[in-house]
Amino acid sequence: MGLLDSFERGLERAVGGAFAKTFKSGVQPLEISAALRRELDTKAAVVSRDRILAPNDLTVRLSPADKQRMDTLGESLTDELTQLVQKHATAQRYTFPGGIRITLQADESLSEGVIQVDSHTIKGAVVWNPVLDIDGTRYPLMKSRTIVGRGSEADITLDDSGTSRKHIEILWDGTRGQVNDLGSTNGSLLNGEPFTQAALPPDSVIQIGRTRILFRVLAQSEPPRGGTARGGPR
């Protein structure tokens, strides 16, 4: 599956039916993702034999009508765009001077359907934000330990009779992820293999019962105030 296909499927999972209902005209999310890739390719600069530097602060300017439609997707859109930019940079061997920041901005001077991308290279700290994508919903992992299962005591509750009340736990120490099966009745799979305890690298797929869980880690710019920079995922 290509990067753009992966992006579109990820966005459809994240927003469900709102995706098809909202984007029948004007700028399409796929067009934004393609514009961001072009911007990276255009602005990437060779700074040494082993390093190609790409801009990490990207502003997407849209007509007010297009911007309003994009706003209906909320943070899911920028999360998916960030993930795509990460993957494209890895494939092209680009490096960033800091975390990725993608901003959508309304521009009265632009006609509907037109996209303009401005980019800058900004040195700064990176925050690695882990998330779980489950049945079209994205769950940021705000704690160091997150329990997933069908019981009300779980942090993320599943409507799946094939899962235990407390089925798995996801551990995140700021740089690395781990997943543990909490003695579930039906067991768990990580990337198709059964496990009881395992390291959890980015883009891993966990299967419990009928539920498929995608673990992602997004490299984003540290907010101007608050928060502590963290090392990269391994």
Question: Can you describe what's shown?
Answer:
The chain is of the alpha+beta class and 234 residues long. It has two domains: 3-120, 2-Layer Sandwich (hypothetical protein PF0899 fold); 127-220, Sandwich (Tumour Suppressor Smad4), CATH 2.60.200.20. Helices cover 25% and strands 34% of the residues. The protein has five helices and 17 strands. The strands form four sheets. Strands 8-7-17-16-13-14 form a six-stranded antiparallel sheet. The chain has a five-stranded mixed sheet with strand order 10-9-11-12-15, with no helix packed on it. It has a three-stranded mixed sheet with strand order 1-2-4. It is globular and about 55 Å long. The two termini are 23 Å apart. Mean pLDDT is 85; it is low at 15-20 and 226-232.
